[in-house]
Automatic annotation (TrEMBL):
Topology of this chain in the membrane: Multi-pass membrane protein
InterPro entries: AA_transpt_TM (IPR013057)
Lineage: Eukaryota, Metazoa, Chordata, Craniata, Vertebrata
Protein name as it appears in the record: Solute carrier family 38 member 3
Intracellular or extracellular location(s): Membrane
Gene giving rise to this polypeptide: SLC38A3
Length: 507
């Protein structure tokens, strides 16, 4: 028996590229029988490379071969990274200064790339391409449930924030197009009706697709909308004078005329005010700086989508997926910095927490800004299906781990999710604050803590001892996540206690 088993094991190692399963085969004695109880989760990795003569088994987790191209995967992951938080980055720069903002943005981009590296390396060792199954491999059922719950809460919070933007912004766009009164009673100017229509007509059909890879074209269009937003922000920098003259007020607070003062003294005051208001700050530390750090830390949240995109990648390798992640992070890094920089250099200290609201103070009807609003709404709407896929996958792993793919279950979960999120957005106006609290706990887990502790548990000790530099670095990474969680929760609780609304939750 032994003489026949050994050649089969060797042949298996030769057939699988990149040494993924060669590592698994060599580490079986150290891992033991608990390597997987759900053996079929790694079958897609084997099926793509096995000869046709070998009988294939049906898989539970992925019942299709990866067919998504490199470019489409970049579009999907970039779209998963990009969220509504890009609208608040100029405000973050105003409260950190250009240099501190650049340092934080660079640090977060590098940390996100490292976090994805940990996920991919853990995935390659055990042949699993599901976040929840990595949790199962590392800590059994509790690890699987913890990962699934964190993904569900984080992504439901993100989808709620996107649909809340649709609810609040689409009526304003329609009112401007149709020249309606500000408080119109028409049904098509009601945000509650409009968010339902957008969900049914646009989001649901995209969410019903079987594979995430099919959304590559929608993701590409969404990214093009955000590129248009970025170009418009850069263009407006050279069109809007500083200091900002607010059309919504009868007088500008920076140009208050005192009748008893002479023209010369007024001119001196105005010059001083312009110098103060229109001078960029390289380093700023104020009461709002602390609130911007968690926002910056979560600017590159895409980790729940990484492994599903990896699963559907054509001819997948760990190196190829890491390259996709690095390109996506770099593209969004450049877009984030340029949007924040030119938004800040347009309004300086007068920039609001939502950049588009600041532009509305320049002109009540600006065609370009109106088009930008439409573009941002389009991008946000097309991002919702990308975020919904990992939630549905997490629910299936929690409730139906041993079931084969079913279109009925696939559709029902999508409808239930969208219905629940719409009800939350319609009937709970303060839902963003609640999900800000959830995001402050789930996001650090998904970005920092889980990838690090899964890596420490999954990588065999004979390959990397517990006190090896990579595992020590991973442990420090997990500690950083705990620190961010404590800091974010503290800021949100303080904000609630003082009656503020600054610790919003944008992804």
């Amino acid at each position: 028996m032994n003489s026949t088993e050994i050649p089969i094991q060797t042949e298996m190692v030769e057939l699988v590229p990149n040494g993924k399963h060669a590592v698994v085969a060599s580490s079986v004695p150290s891992i033991g029988n608990d390597r997987f109880e759900e053996n079929q989760t790694n079958l897609p990795e084997r099926e793509e490379f096995l000869p046709h003569g070998v009988e294939k088994k049906q898989t539970n987790f992925t019942d299709f071969e990866g067919k998504t191209s490199f470019g489409m995967s970049v579009f999907n992951l970039s779209n998963a990274i990009m969220g509504s938080g890009i609208l608040g980055l100029a405000y973050a720069m105003a409260n950190t200064g250009i240099l501190l903002f650049l340092f934080l943005l660079t640090a977060v981009a590098l940390l996100s790339s490292y976090s994805i590296h940990l996920l991919l390396k853990s995935s390659g060792i055990v042949g699993i391409r599901a976040y929840e199954q990595l949790g199962y491999r590392a800590f059994g059922t509790p690890g699987k449930l913890a990962a699934a719950i964190a993904i569900t809460l984080q992504n439901i919070g993100a989808m709620s924030s996107y649909l809340y933007i649709v609810k609040s912004e689409v009526p304003l766009v329609l009112q401007t197009f149709l020249n309606l009164e500000e408080k119109s009673t028409y049904w098509y100017a009601n945000g509650n009706y409009l968010v339902i229509m957008v969900s049914v007509c646009i989001i649901l059909p995209l969410a019903l697709m079987k594979q995430l890879g099919y959304l590559g074209y929608a993701s590409g269009f969404s990214l093009s909308c955000m590129v248009f937003f970025l170009i418009s922000v850069i263009y407006k920098k050279f069109q809007i004078p500083c200091p900002l003259v607010d059309v919504n007020t009868t007088s500008n607070q920076n140009f208050t005329v005192v009748s008893t003062s002479s023209y010369q003294s007024d001119h001196t005051i105005v010059q001083a005010t312009e110098e103060d208001v229109c001078t960029p700050s390289l380093l700023t530390l104020n009461s709002q700086t602390a609130y911007t750090i968690p926002i910056m830390a979560f600017a590159f949240v895409c980790h729940p989508e990484v492994l599903p995109i990896y699963t559907e990648l054509k001819n997948p390798t760990k190196k190829k997926m890491q390259c996709i992640a690095n390109i996506s992070i770099t593209v969004m890094y450049v877009m984030y910095f340029l949007a924040a920089l030119f938004g800040y250099l347009t309004f300086y200290g007068q920039v609001e927490s939502e950049l588009l609201h600041t532009y509305s103070r320049v002109s009540s009807f600006d065609v370009l800004i109106l088009c930008v609003r439409v573009a941002v709404l389009t991008a946000v709407t097309l991002t919702v299906p990308i975020v919904l896929f990992p939630v549905r996958r997490a629910i299936q792993q929690m409730l139906f781990p041993d079931k084969e793919f079913s279109w009925i279950r696939h559709i029902i979960i999508a409808i239930v999710l969208l219905t629940s999120i719409n009800l939350l957005v319609i009937f709970a106006p303060s839902i963003l604050g609640i999900f800000g609290l959830i995001g402050a706990t789930s996001a650090p887990c998904l970005i920092f803590i889980f990838p690090a502790i899964f890596y420490i548990r999954i990588i065999p000790k004979d390959k990397e001892p517990t006190k090896s530099p990579p595992k020590i670095l991973a442990a420090l990474f997990a500690c950083l996540g705990v620190l961010f969680m404590i800091m974010s929760l503290s800021f949100i609780i303080i904000d609630w206690a003082t009656g503020g609304g600054k610790s919003g939750g944008g992804h």
